[in-house]
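Hi all, a correction to my earlier message: I attached the wrong file for Phosphonate ABC transporter, permease protein PhnE. Here's the right sequence:
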Amino acid sequence: MNRTTHGEIARLRRTNPELFSSPLIAQIRTWALWLGFIAALAYGLWWVDANPMRIVNGLNKLGLLVGLMIPPHPGDGFWSYVHAMLETLGMAFLGTVIAAVLAVPLGFLGAKNIMPNWLFHFGLRRIYDGFRGIDGLVWALIFVSAVGLGPFAGVLAIAVGDLMIFAKLFAEAIENVETKQVEGVRAAGGNDTHVMRLGVFPQVLPVMMSHVLYFFESNVRSATILGIVGAGGIGLALSDRMRINNWQEVAFIILMILVTVAVIDNISRSIRARLIDAAPQN
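and the right structure:
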């Protein structure tokens, strides 16, 4: 049966080839897209002066640096590194919490089922999207210039950078709540405040907390980078040791960051799994 079908198809292909080929315009568009992609790739590689010898030479220098890092050693700065690491964790924690708290009302305002006005909803979501396009590193440079060097600039950079992202995620979570629980509160005589507090918030709280924990562990890594541009914490200590070519202490700081992030990841993953399991199923 299959051979008959294949044979029939082959016969139709020979007798009516136009049925099995794409229209000329579609072929030209496909080829133009591929040529454009290849040209952009080639231009990008030429523009960054990509060269295999540069990679080989870079690997040689990287091997030399790795050799200088062994064995990792904190020198006389162990406790100052611990303090800087705690400062980084504090930046990530405060920035994440401030962003999450401020994002809750913005999430309700951005949810279509709470604010059904199309124009308001569309404008607010575009504001969220616009702010989300600015990277946290840019915010850090802005706040370091505005409020000076130190962890406060890092906290502001994380809080402002995450605020609109949380607002969008919270709004999407609110839009997906189960309506039966909301209708139940209304049927019991609840007003809008009761609906929010008893019908909507209990459903979205586990989802919100899961997002917050995920961003906290991500912000621990981000806070390290922010420190390099002047926001304090372990990133500042890392950049200082790199600047004076103290590579053993650089290796020790990197290991400290890796261990801390791994511990935070495991704790956060465990809590998020419990929250997801506890979330009401629609």
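Sorry for the mix-up. The mean pLDDT is 84.
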